[in-house]
Structures are given as C-alpha cells and as structure tokens.
Amino acid sequence: MNYCVGIDLGSTTTKAVVLGESGEVLGRGITNSRSNYEIACDVSVGEALISARFGLLEEALAAEGVEADRRKVQLEELEQGFREEQYRGDLRELGSVMGRLLEAGTYSAQEADAVTCVLDKMEQNAGSLYGRGKSRKSDFFRDLAGGEYLELVEGEAKTRALSFDRLVGLYDKAILEVENTVAHDESFSSRIKAALGRIPEQDALLAKAISAVVAMNLTKAGSVGTGYGRQTLPFAKEDIRSEILCHGLGAHAMFPNTRTVLDIGGQDTKAIQVDGNGIVTSFQMNDRCAAGCGRYLGYIADEMNIGLHELGPMACKSTRPVKINSTCTVFAGAELRERLSLGEKREDILAGLHRAIILRAMSLLARSGGIADEFTFTGGVAKNPAAVEALRKLIQENYGERTLNISPDSIYTGALGAAMFAQREWRRRHCA
Amino acid sequence: MSEEKQVFKDDSQLRQKTMIADHYSRLAAAPDTGEKSVYTFVPGNLTELIRNFDLLPVLPEINALQSAMRGKSKEYIAAAEREGHSEDVCTYVKCDVGMKRAGNVGPTGERLPDPDLLLLSYTGCFTFMKWFEILKQEYDCPVTMLHVPYQGEGEITDSMRKYVVDQIKQKIIPALEKASGKKFDIDKLREQLRRSAQAEDDLVAVLESAKNRPSPIDAYFGGVYYIGPIFTAFRGTEQAVDYYRLLNQEIQERVRLGKGPVTPDGEMKEERFRLVVEGPPNWTNFREFWKMFSEEGAVCVASSYTKVGGVYDTGFRHDPDRPLESLAEYCLGCYTNLNLPSRVDTLERYVREYQADGLLVNSIKSCNSFSAGQLMMLREVGDRTGVPCGFVESDLVDPRYFSGSNIKNRLESYFQMIEQKRGGVQV
Amino acid sequence: MSANRILELVESAEETYRDMSLASVKAWKEKTGGLAIGFMPIYVPRELLHAQGVLPVGIMGGGDDLEIIRGDAYYQSYICHIPRSTIELGLGGQLDCLDGMLFPAICDVIRNLSGMWKFEFPEKLSRYLDVPQDFTPEMGGEFYKSELLALIADLEKRGARPYDKEALRASIRLFNELGGIVRDLYALRRASPWKVPTAELYCLQRAATIWPVEEAITILREYHELVLADETRTPMDQARVVLAGSFCEQPPLGLIKTLERSGCYIVDDDFIQVHRWITRSLDVEGDPLEALVNGFLFDAMASPTRYCGDKTKGTELVTRVETAGAEGVLFCAPSFCDPALLDQPMAVASIEKAGIPWTAFRYSENNGQFQVIREQAGTFADSIKLWSGV
Q1: Which candidate from A326, A335, A363 shows the least CB-CB separation from C73?
Q2: Is the pLDDT of residue B6 over 50?
Q3: Chain A residues with CB-CB distance to B412 below 8 A
Q4: How high is the pLDDT of residue A236?
Q5: Most distant CA atoms of chain A, gap in Å
Q6: Measured between alpha carbons, how far is A50 from B245 in angstroms, rounded to an integer?
Q7: Is B406 on the interface with C (CB under 8 A)?
Q8: Cβ neighbours of residue A236 under 8 Å, at least 6 residues apart?
Q9: Looking at residue C138, what DSSP letter applies?
Q10: What ranges do the domains of chain B cover?
Q11: B373: nearest CA partner in chain A
C-alpha cells in the first residue's frame, strides 16, 4: 500500500501525517523537536506509521465483524501494551548510554550506584505507567522518563548525600544522546506481538487481524516537509513547501469553508487568507520578536510555576480581567510580578494576558485582510480555552458573527497540508 | 560574440567603479589640492549647482551604506549608541556619527575631508534636518538649508516652486559662492543641466528595459548600481553622460539577445517571478538578500527605491531653459516627497506596466518616510491590481535587524503563493 | 469649598479629553451647525479656523484607554503609538463628528498619516499643514502664507464662513487671551509649583484643545484664580525639573502623576504646545494673516520639529532650565519618536556642558506600568535634593 507523508518540523514539536492512496488520513505522529532534525522527522513519521497501522488494525477487526465497543477495548489494551514496550526499549537505551557516561566521566562509585538504583526502579515502575485507562502527562520519552528520574534521583541524592545537580546533569546529557542518535526502528511487528502477549485472554480474531496488518507493506510514495526547520530538512528542495501554504491547505482540508486561518505556535503567529480551494491569497506573520506567541505563555507558566495547560483554565475563572497592553516576552515576568504585588488576582492577570495575546493576533489578522467566514484557529494556543474565549469575543465585537473552527487535531494542520501536497505531486507523477 | 558581451558589461561596471573611486580619491586629496567639499544628501540634491562652483559633494547616506557593505556599520552604530543615540532612530545617522568617531574614513579606506559647507537639502525625509543639526555640532563650518515642502496634496504648486527657487537664489547660491570663492555661472549651469537631461534619458531607457520579458535588468538590486552615479556626484558631468550611454547600449543588447539580468552569482537563467519592490534595500546583507530572489528566479522589474533621488519616468528632466525652476521641481519630485496616494498610484502603474506578478514591500526600520503607511499601500495596491503582495522587514545598515532565516521564510512562502495562485487548483 | 471646585474643574477637563466619542464636540456642532476640524499635536493656527466659524479639536492619540485592534494593521512595530491609535479612532467611528483633520509637519510618520487619512476617509477634509523651516518673511513667510490661504480655501469649500479680516482679528484676540492665561499658569507653576500640579495643568490644557476657546478661557481663568487663592496647597521638598520630549504622543496621565509622586516638581514641560507655541500675544493691529505668519516665524517655541538655524541645538533647553529655576531635566520621549530622540543627544550635550543633571526614559501613550519610571525619577529627585543640600 502506498502512502504519502507530510512532516511539519516545528520549534517545539515535529508532526507527521500519513495519507493513504485515496487521500484519507491513515495516521498522525508527533514527537518533541531536537537538534537532530532528521531524527525528529524519522520519529514523527515512525509514530504516524504506528498510528496508521493501529488504524488499519481497527479496520481489519471491523471487517472481521468485531463490534465497535469490543474493538475499542481491545485496541486500547493493545496500544497501552505497545507503548509500554516502546518505553521499556527506550529505557534500556537510556540505561546503556548512562552506563557509558558514568564509566567515561568523573563520577564516583556512589553516584554510579545511585543511578543504577534509580534506573532499576524506573524499570520496575514502567508497568504502572501503562494500562487500561491510564494517561500520562506527556507521551514524549524525554518528559516521561525525565519526570520519573528527577523524582527518584532526588531521594537517592538526599539519602546518599550526593549532588542532585550532577545527577540531573548526567540525565540531561544522556537524554540528548538518546534522542539524537537513536532512530526509532519501525519494529511494529515485535512490539505489537509482545503487546498481544500481555493480554490475558487470547483472541484468535485479534491475532489474525494483527498478523494481517503486520504483513501489510506500507511504501512511501512521496513526502513533503514544512515548518520552522524546513530549510534544514533532509528533503530535496522540490519536496519542501512553506508552512503558510501547508497551513492554508491543511485548514481547508479540515474545514472546507475556511477562508481565514490563524495559527499561533510557539515562536510565531500566522494569519492566512485562503480561497475556496485552500489556495493562499495573502498572509502575515509576526515580526522578529516572539511577543504574543505561544512562548510568551510558556514564560508566564514558568513564572507562576504551573503547567502550561493549566494557564487557560485558571484564566477562565477570572471575573474582572486586568488590562494589559504589553505582550513583550522579555518583560513578561516583571509585568506579572508587579501586577501580583499590586494585589491583582492571578486569574484576572492571566485573563488580561490571554486577551493581550489575542489582540496581537487580531492585528495580524487585520493586516492580512481581516476575518472572513469561516475562520479556523490552529496551533498549540488553540487548545487554550481562555485564548479561544478571548478570540471569540473579539471576533464578535469587531467582525460580527463568524463560524470558529477548532479541530482537536489542529496541531497537525501544517503536516496535513504538507501530506496533501505530497499526495498531489505523487498523483501528478503517477498519472503522467 | 559572448566574450565581446562580457567585455561590454565589464566596461560599464568598471567605468562606474573607477568614477566613484576617483571621486573618493579626489576627496581624500582635497586638503592637499585645496579643493573644497560640500556635505549634502541624495534625495533631490543640487549636484549640478554644487559642481557649478567646482565644489565636491560628499553624501553621508552613501558613506553609511558603503560602511554597511564593508561590514563596518555594526561598530559605528554601537559607538553612536554608546554616546546616547537611541536604538529607536535612523541607523544611517548613527552609522555616520560612528564613522566620524572612527576617523571619517571613507569606503576606499581614505579619510574624507571635513566639510567646507553643510548644504542641508531637506527633501522627503524629516530626519535629514536632525542629521545636519547633529553634524553641525561636529564641524566648525557654515550651514545652509534648502527647505523643500512636501507634496501633501499630490502636486507641486506655484508657491512651493517659488519658495524653493527663492531659497536657491537667495540662500543656497550665495552660500556656495562664499564657500567656493567663485561666482555663480548660469551658462555653465545650463550646460550641466543639458548633460543631466541626456543621462536621465538613458537611465530611463535602462529602467524601462525591464518591461521586456525576460527583463534584462534587476531594477532593484541591480538598479542600485545604475542610479549610483546620477544620484551622487556625477549628474551634469560628461562622465555621467558617457556612463549612461554605455550602460544603455549594453542593456539594449541584452534585450536583443533575450538575456536576463546579471546577478553577483552569474546570469539569471529562468525568469519565474516578476516583482515590483517598494522600499530601500538592506545594505548589511545585500548579496545574501539578492540571492534569495535570484535563486528562486525572481526578478525585480521596477522599484520605488530607484526613484529616491528623483523621479524621471513620468517625464521630468532637468531643463537648461528653466534652470532654477527645474532644479526646484527635481527636489520637489522625489519619491518620498510624494504623498501616499501618489505613491500608491506609482506602484499600481508599475505593477501594470511592467506586468508584475506581485508587489513586495521591504519595510525598513530606520526609514519612517518610506515605511509609515506601507502596510496600507500594500493592501491598496493588492486590491487594485489583484496581484499577491508580500511583506518583509529589515533595516538599512543595522545588521541586528536583518534576520536572514526569517526573511527567507517569508519570501519562499510569498513566491510559492504566487506560484500556487498562478497554477490555480491542481488537484 | 474651593478645593472641591478645583477638583470639579479638573475632573471635567479629564472627562472631556478622555471621552473618545467627543460628545462635547457633537453638542457644539448641534448647537451651532458649524464645522469641527481635528488637529494633531504641536501647532496649528486655530485662530484661522475659529475666524471661519470652525471648531478646532485637538486629537492627541487614544491614550491608555483605547484598545488597538485595527490600528496595528497599519503600522509596523517600530513606529510610535500615536498614529495607530489615531487611525483606530478614525476607523472606530469616534471621529465621525469631525469634518476633517489637519496634520501639522511634525515628522514623517504624521506626514504620511495625512495620506492614509485621504485613503480611509475620502469624504473628509484631510490636509497636511506644511510649515516653513526657513524663517525669513520673504521666503518662509511667503510660503507659510500660501499654505494658510490654501487652508482657508479648503475650509470655505467645506462650507466654512469665508475668510474675513475682522473676524480673524477677533479670533486672534481670543486665542491671545487663552495663550496669556496658559502662560500665566506656567509662570505660577514656576514660582509655586505646589499651587499648580502638572497633572491638573495637563488635563486643563488638553481639554482646552477641545473646548471652544471662549469656554476654555472661562474655565482656565477660574482655575487660575482658585489655585492662587487656595492656601491649603503648601510647598513640599521636591526636586524642580524640566520635562522634555513629550510634545507629540502624549504620556498617560498616570505617568505624569507618577513623576510628581516620585518627588519631582515639573516646572516646565513640552505638553500641549499648541497653546504656547507662539510665545507672546499676536499683533492685532495690522494684517491679521501677517500676524499669524510673523508669530510663527519669529515668536515660536524652540522645538525638535523646528530647524534650529544658526543656533546651537540644546542651548534653548539650558535657558529654559535657568528661567524655570529647575535643578534637572527629565527626558521623557515616546518610544520611536524621531524628532525627540534625534534631538536628545544634542540637548544632553548642552545641558551637561552647563552642569545640569538629567535622566531619560521612554514611554508609549498606552503604558500601564510605571514602576521602573517611578524608581528612576524618584532616585533622580533624591539625588538632586541631596546634591542641593550639600
């Protein structure tokens, strides 16, 4: 089976979308971006292919007549098992890199012992992370293992009177190496089989479906890269499209009546106008500074010492938003501290900050030609309820009634557009 | 045949280089030869009048942009900012102040003479006035000012023309006489203006050659070189007449052969995009910036920047029969002295007449005269012509405001947008 | 009792200028049926408008109340704030009651705004008011006169009363009177800054660009008399400073109050120069148009927007410091303000030569945070007081 893939290499995450021969989305994959772009791309594509095979598996089960509820349970169980296998594999890799660093570096036997202890515990804990109904703070190995390691190593450092910072430094070094040198293989087959082995009651239909999907040959027919790091993507020049075009087309694919697209990502904000075919007619991007981008919220979250995803819900509690005029990233911390010292409530300040960010976006939108119906909002910030609320309100006030589209898969918009470009190119060649 | 062409090309470029280098050498030698210099500006300058008195013009903007091309502007600007010049203001000014601190060494590595006169001809840019107030504190020399009013209502009125002519007669000429010790020679001026008009004819032919497909020139990046002599020290000289005749011959030959423009990286092969560009170029990364266009097959077929010294393509010529009046009209007619509706009309006309695929704005942080209003101009031209419009930001001579990856990112998106629009639906 | 009345006057002034909908202008138009023309900061010859039955209305940006939605679509981030809030006001319909706008020659940004206005509001009068930078009567004077005549003609075309010499004389008398009161208030503040807090003077002056001149005269005169008589206003130990650079984009009122609270008496400033641009009363005997021209040529304030000619830049600031008996200078310019910021190093050179202490900061009209400025100005005031105590 042929597939086309689109890759969106962003400043914080790398996304991939895999399309089947008739243009249907087979799978989506995401990973954290890293200094080695090639590996970030490989990992995201690998993840997308895994999700594609899970999708195919569900189709196979459906074809076997397995009912939807049953399929759901089976697939969830399988996937949890699969992820656990993946995690354990990465953990082994981490262990071996750390082992090597410990031997080569200036670490004491005590430190080496502490780390081994921690790694052993992580190995033991792995099982408790996965299972039906379990969810994790992040599915990126770096975050997941990092969180575990920090928690465990802190205790070890205390009881053994070792430097916590040194042990954290070791992890940071090791994870970089693990991320940047180890390409995930696509050994879907072995992991899915291991995951199947974890399911207590055996099911012949499931085993059959898995064998069928494993046997399926997925052949890459085309790929297009886009995103922040596209200039350094391991692609030929003709396989690269600008993120503006990809976002425009991706948003059009998700919501065909889209005429205006707003994307607020980590480092940049884009306002795009598209026609009825998803062709970009005008666009504007934020200028040099990252004021008003997602990164700004990141600073605020750090300053408040809360998670990025907690900001929006907290801001939503505001009853009296504070008026904030500056969205300068550099001064974000100072502004926040002064507001707090003036006795303003956290939620009111946050509501003001969210509004300020959206105001910046409104400017870009106005520059690009305004907000036409329908309007699609994408990017990480589209997941933030306070930002969405502020946007909704400002649109109403300034442009009147508009349909506001936000897809749960909005983070994949650029990758989807890229995949569609790849698909078009493949078809063009294929038909010619 | 092609070798012969190569020689031709080298000839005009070489000649221009020599002309400019000679001028700087003459300036450097001025303290010994006794020649006197006048500091003045590019837009609507009075070169013929200055040279009527055998005075040598020095143009601080040119020094600043040359400093940037030689990689010196960063330290010069830093020096000026250390002295208290704000990071918010024009980097030409700061580069000039910094260059003075570093010994006033010009682009050829030789020291420039101190001015014998500061001739502030204040056209189309308010900052010029402040610039000369700053320079006045640096030098112990007379200053004279030509105030050129703005075409706020989109036309040159009799009272504007009279105001400028009166100032030339009653202030500028006496100041030049005093600085040079020579009498004003109206017959010589007529002769100079006749030569100006001749060179202007050739320049217009060169710039309008871009109406051909492919365009034989790049009228923005390449255009900068073409306007060099006429906007600086040479208008009204025999050298300028020869240079522009030669240049025009060369270009017409390229048209005949159906050749595209020559870029620093060789001759451009395929013309994929024809663009009109609004705004000055960036000087710190000039070649890198140009390459972002030429690599993609993008040719600038018309630009507003090449009209910054004076606008010739709507028919203006220096006129020996109306010497002072035509000098006044030249000053009044500079591109940045036009009001926004006139500027939009100009750009719209360029898009149509040069059959451009788009309008691109390079918005310059330093230059509010150009930049304030460009976003609206962009939308207006886009609405009127239907061509895609693009927008990038940089600065004149401050390397801190040139983000190569950012600009490349936008340009690529812009070019792809033009292409996509051109191709229509390709499902 | 009088304290309450002072408060009332100041509050009504603040209310007037903060009212973005220009209700007072609308009321005036309804009552008189006359034209109202907006003007940007620094200087326009309001006498001329008044003489033709036109209400001049000072439009000095959107301040810190206005949220910018569309204005940023017109301006890059490196351009000052006043044009974006002004266009925001225009697009938001708040200036609909104005029949036109005048854009005095302040800088390239305001100059270009005049062209943008022509695009956005083609049905309104929009005029760039060029002023000469040559100050001889035969050249700059003649040119300025032609600009004024063109303005007169424009106003007539819009239905304003035809130009009339006597009417202009009468208008000049009125504006002379207003200018006189403002100058008196500045003199009083120099002599007894505790009597005339700058934040109050600012609000009154600013509103006086919107009120009809007759009303402005009455209110400012009443204020002057009340503060003179108010014995409850007593001196404090504050540093006397001249505030320079805030002539176009206006600082938020909070910033002025912050400076005063941080221990500064502002004894001279660049605010709302239109009332003080011509530094003495204009001649009412001869040709009134000549009087306007001559006032501009010979009796205008020194300003970064005005070519300094043969004088050394910055010396006038030294004179102002001396005249005001000030102990230091606060350079308080809007971010990205070309005239103010290009002038500053020259002004600094002059005052340093004269041994006058200074400090500098920048603002934008919509600043909401003054903590850093408060600390900076406070430290500056303390250092001056310490110094003068030695």
Answers
A1: A363
A2: no
A3: 242
A4: 78
A5: 70
A6: 68
A7: no
A8: none
A9: I
A10: 2-184, 188-423
A11: A367
For tokens 């040959």, what's the residue? A217
Query: CB C338 to CB B89 under 8 A?
Result: yes
Whether C69 sits inside 8 A of A325 (CB atoms) is no
CA distance A244 to chain B (A): 6
pLDDT tens by residue, B235-276: 999 999 999 999 999 999 999 999 999 988 888 889 999 999
Chain B from 344 to 383: CB within 8 A of any C CB: 344, 363, 365, 368-369, 371-376, 380
Class of the CATH-defined domain B2-184? alpha beta
> What residue type is assigned to position A421 of the chain?
F
With an 8 Å Cβ cutoff, are A242 and B413 in contact?
Answer: yes
Rounded-to-integer distance, Cα C283 and Cα B373, Å: 40
Q: Do B145 and C142 lie within an 8 Å CB cutoff?
A: no
On whether any CB of chain A is under 8 Å from the CB of B400, the answer is no
Please list every residue in chain A whose beta carbon sits closer than 8 Å to the beta carbon of residue B424: 277, 279
Q: Within 13 Å of residue A326, how many CA atoms lie on the same side as its CB?
A: 18
**Element holding C362 (H helix, E strand):** strand C358-363
Task: Write the pLDDT tens digit of every residue in B220-234.
Answer: 999 999 999 999 999
Best A273, A282, A325, A365 residue to mutate vs chain C (most C CBs within 10 Å)? A325
Residue A303 confidence (pLDDT): 82
Better-predicted residue by pLDDT, C303 or B8: C303
Domain locations in chain A as residue ranges: 2-215, 256-406
Q: Residue C363's closest chain A neighbor by CA? A: A326
Q: In CATH, which superfamily holds the domain spanning A256-406? A: ATPase, nucleotide binding domain (3.30.420.40)
Cβ(B85)–Cβ(B387) under 8 Å?
Answer: no
The 10 Å Cβ neighbour count of residue A428 is: 12
Residues above pLDDT 90, as percent of chain C: 91
Contact B310, B334 (CB under 8 A): yes
Task: Please tell me the least confidently modeled range out of A216-230, A292-306, B148-162, B333-347.
Answer: A292-306
- Taken in order C201, C206, C207, C208, the sign of the CA dihedral is positive
Size of chain A in residues: 432
The complex's ipTM works out to 0.95
A interface mutation test: which of B403, B406, B417, B425 has the most A CBs within 10 A?
B417
* A121: nearest Cα among A143, A86, A93, A95: A95
> Does domain B188-423 match CATH 3.40.50.80?
no
Lowest pLDDT segment from A378-382, A416-420, B358-362: A378-382
According to DSSP, residue B105 is labeled B
Judged by CB atoms closer than 8 Å, whether chains meet at C335 and B343 is answered as no
Q: What number of other Cβ atoms are within 10 A of residue B265's Cβ? A: 11
Q: State how far residue A237 is from chain B, nearest Cα, in angstroms.
A: 11
Of the pLDDT bands very low, low, confident and very high (cuts 50, 70, 90), residue A202 is: confident
Residues found in chain B:
427
Structure tokens at C321: 């410091």
Q: What is the set of domains in chain C, with CATH numbers? A: 22-163 (3.40.50.11890)
For residues C118-135, average pLDDT: 96
B395 in contact with A at a CB cutoff of 8 Å? no
Picking from A401, A375, A162, A204, the residue whose alpha carbon sits closest to that of residue A274 is A375
Sorting pLDDT into bands at 50, 70 and 90, what band is A39?
Answer: confident
Report chain B residues whose CB lies below 8 A from the CB of A367.
Answer: 375
A279:B405 CB<8 A: no
In the structure, what pLDDT confidence band is assigned to residue B305 with cuts at 50, 70 and 90? very high
CB contact under 8 A, B368 and C339: no
- List C-alpha distances in Å: C208 to A356, B357, C202, C272, C299: 33, 52, 10, 9, 21
Judged by CB atoms closer than 8 Å, whether chains meet at C115 and B343 is answered as: yes
Write phi, then psi, for C244 (nearest 5 degrees).
Answer: -120, 145
